[in-house]
Every structure is written in C-alpha cells, then in structure tokens.
Amino acid sequence: MNAKRVLKYVGRVLLVLFVTVLILAGTVYLVVYKICNGPSPAAKAEFGSSLLESGQMKFVAKLVLSKEEIEEINNRNSREQMDTDSLDTDLIHIENNDNPDDPNATPVPADKREVFDENGIRIIEIAGSSYVAQLMIVKDPSQVCVGTTYPWSEYGKNLNEIVANCGALGGVNGGLYESSGNKGGYPLGVVVQNGQITCNKPYSNKGLYMIAMNNDNILIIKNIEGMSESDVKKYVEEEGIRDCVCFQEESSDANNHFVPLVINGEGRELKGQGSGANPRTAIGQRADGAILLLVTDGRGANGHLGATAADLIAIMLEYGAVNAANLDGGSSSCMYYKGEYVQGSVTFYYQNSSWRLPTAFVVMPKGQ
Asked: Rg of the chain over CA atoms, in angstroms?
C-alpha cells in the first residue's frame, strides 16, 4: 500500500470518527435540551441540578438553560440553612459494648446486637430507587482519621494508595480539591492531620465548612466562611481538632454544593429533593459514637442516576446519625476496604479504582 492510499485511508477513518462524535454530541445535546425544556418542572429541576453539580458537565446546563432558569432550578431544589454553631456534642456518648465494665455502655439484647468484623467494621448495601449505596459503620470513632498525600504536589494518589500509605484498613474519599485534569494533588480549604494543620486556606472557596474529628472522637461540622488563617489556627487549638477536611456550601451557576445533612438528630429541611441526583460521599456519627461512611453510585453507573440530598438525609437518619455532612462527590466518590474497592469511581476508566485524591477519611486498625 503506497503513501497516498495510506493517507486516504487515515483520512476516511478520521472523518468517520469526527462524524460519529458530532452525531453523539448532537444527540446528547438534544436529549438534554428536551429534558430541560420538557413539560415536567420537577424533571427539569432535578436534571439541571445534577448537571450543575458536575465539574465536567456543568457547561452543558449553561448551553441549554438561561441564567434565570438556572436560578429557578437552584431555588426549586434547595435547602434551608442549618445552624452548625448549635451542634450539641453532649448528644454523643461513645460506648464500648465489648467491655462489660464500661459504665457508659448500654446493654443490648443478643438478638439486637450488630455483627461487626474483627476490625469493628460492618458494611451494608442499600438499594434506592436511583442508586446503590455502601454504608461502612465503624464502631470505634477513634479509628477514623484523615489520610493525605502531604507534602502536597501536583498529583494526588488513588484511594487504595492513601489507605496503604497510612497503614489503614480502608476509607472513603475526603474533601474539596483541585480536580482539573484528574491531577488531584492540592486540597482546598483546611486540612488537619493528627492535630497538625497541613493546609490553611479558608479563603480559597465560598461557603467552606470544616468536617472534622476532635480529640474526644466527636464529629464536628463547622462553618468557617470568613475565618482567617489565624482564626483557623486558634479554633483548631482551642477546640482540639485532630483531623479535618473541607467541603463547600454554595448554590449558583458556578457551584451547586451542600454540606450539613443532619444536626442534633434533625434532618435538614429541603425544597424538592434538595439537589440533583449524583454519586455521593457522606459522613455521620451515631449517638453511641459509631461513624457512618456512605458512598453511592450514579451518573449512569449500573443504570443509576445517583442520590439526592433527600436520599442522603433519609439514609443517615434511618441508620441513627445525630450529625452528618456531605463530602466531595461525583466522580471522586469511592470506598475501599480490605484490599478491594467496595465502590469504585463512576468514571468508566476508573471504575475499579478512584480518581487521584489529596485527602481521604481512613479507618485505622484497632488499637492504633
């Protein structure tokens, strides 16, 4: 085959590929346009919210929706504010039912006892109408801490690498980070590891919340918007924050994120479903101190759209959360335990792995 024929063949292949991509893009656009301009305001609101929560597909929503329509969607699927300053840590009484001499332990009938593995962990699969979730319950909250790739560099690590490097058993993805290009090396907001602040940029994003464990092994959810670096340092020292990451609360055409889910046993009040449907990661704590780590699928994975804010709140309340917060979700959502991904990323080429991450909530072995 001479050079001219090779060039002609390559040209035809490229043309076919170009036309195929064009047809697919056009089809996607028409489907999105139809849903967003169809007869169902509820479908438009949920689908629009889902797109606005996506880092990669946000531009699609802006192609088919006006700024006024985006604002209307954000108002239709929205959330009432929650006062995290009223968080009552006295509602948490960490119990040790393995120790019969523990004066704080509540006797549990044998037929009502939860069955944990040798690490004090149990994982429950939860099937919703538009998602499948994995809930990891960690009996001892002292086993849950923040694992990172610190010192920070351009590229983060997969969740399994962060878990291994910490000597942990498993974990879930953590806080907000610079995710462009799936480099994942730099966290946003504040990161604390074992009482040491390794990232202190409370001004990096609007509406930042600290999602933390304190020295008493209590889950803390704290609005840090408006805090300076020195304010953060003082708060970490005075409140005994041992580990934390940050996530963002903001609803606009730039971001559609939320943080508090349950405070003092009360679920957040919502309009509509409170958000679109997407893969999610969340953390909560029961009255007995046990930590709830939740990850859902979505974005077409297993044929599921994902979970809404209403779904997360319902799950957390059903499983006894006194306080709970949403973490970074979407393609970042993942759970790893005992050498395998219980829930991998919904991104097709990372479905048995995760995106590169700078932070994670990890679960350490007993006694460490």
From this structure: 22
